[in-house]
Write a structure and sequence with these properties.
alpha+beta, Conserved hypothetical protein from pyrococcus furiosus pfu- 392566-001, ParB domain, Conserved hypothetical protein from pyrococcus furiosus pfu- 392566-001, domain 2, 2 domains, six-stranded mixed beta sheet, six-stranded antiparallel beta sheet, 21 strands, elongated
Length: 285
């Protein structure tokens, strides 16, 4: 299939339209977010940005909710940006959970009622345990750190446990924010987060495996760091829904449209549509 390729210093970005049934999701989505995005797509009648996928497996790396929203409005094809997932400049990290409540309760005490194996530790040791796979997760306050030991050895099962803890915290009145590891630890140290949850480590092999198996991680499991991405391809929704147009015709139409547009390169840290991009971006004008 023909692609519109943007060559960067660290990675090639290959834009194309594929059948939506060919992509694989490695993470669950949040229904409310999908519904809101679907409504936006119908209102705007255009998809602004492609979904980032692994070129070998077509597992979605970034853009799960956009993909789900396109399915919700009965699109039969989807614009993607293929990347070489094996490229070392692409990294996969995880989202920490930061919890707050007006009148704090001890999550660790609640965990004691569950049939899981825990032990006291400190955050530095807990992080090392996550790296080695000895820990499934950890919960830390500014005074105490509890490691949940990795008895299953299955990263998806450990993330299911994280999701259960998150739901329990919310049922107890805690608010949850999703933070990078460094931001979560900083908030804990500064007292702006009452406690944090460090999730299990995820590898690229894990992402491919659960995506291909069709047994995805809970939402907000992975955070992919991709050094560059394209924005503003503006594909009409009618092209993605049309039963009269073939895939090759739809893709050829996109290629011709992109060739006629000016491509602007923006450095990391650029603010676009109220979002700050930490990677290099290429915007079609």
């Amino acid at each position: 299939m023909e692609t519109f390729t943007i060559k960067t210093d660290r990675i090639d970005l290959k834009i194309a339209i594929v059948n939506i049934g060919s992509i694989r999701m490695h993470e669950e989505t949040i229904p409310e977010v999908v519904q809101a995005l679907a409504a936006d797509l119908l209102r705007d009648s255009v998809l602004r940005h492609p979904v980032m996928v692994d070129e070998k497996t077509i597992v979605v790396l970034d853009g799960m909710h956009r993909a789900a929203a396109l399915r919700a409005i009965e699109c039969i094809r989807i614009p993607v940006c293929f990347v070489d997932y094996d490229n070392p400049s692409i990294r996969v990290e995880t989202w920490y959970r930061a919890f707050n409540r007006k009148d704090p309760l001890s999550l660790t005490e609640e965990l004691m009622r569950w049939n899981i194996k825990t032990r006291e530790s400190n955050t530095q040791e807990a992080k090392k345990n996550l790296e080695t796979g000895a820990a499934a997760a950890f919960i830390a306050t500014n005074r105490k750190c509890t490691v949940i030991e990795n008895t299953s050895g299955d990263v998806r099962q450990n993330f299911q446990l994280v999701a259960s803890i998150e739901r329990m915290a919310q049922s107890l009145g805690y608010y949850v924010n999703y933070e990078t590891e460094s931001d979560a630890l900083k908030e804990l140290g500064e007292g702006t987060a009452q406690l944090i949850l460090g999730p299990p480590r995820v590898t690229k092999q894990d992402v491919r495996r659960v995506g291909l198996k069709g047994d995805p991680f809970p939402h907000k499991a992975t955070r992919h760091i991709i050094p560059a991405r394209p924005l503003g391809i503006d594909v009409p929704i009618e092209v993605l829904r049309s039963q009269r147009m073939g895939l090759l015709q739809a893709n050829r139409q996109l290629m011709e449209a992109l060739k006629k547009r000016r491509l602007e390169r923006l450095d990391p840290g650029s603010l676009i549509e109220n979002r700050r991009y930490e990677e290099q971006v290429f915007v079609f004008k």
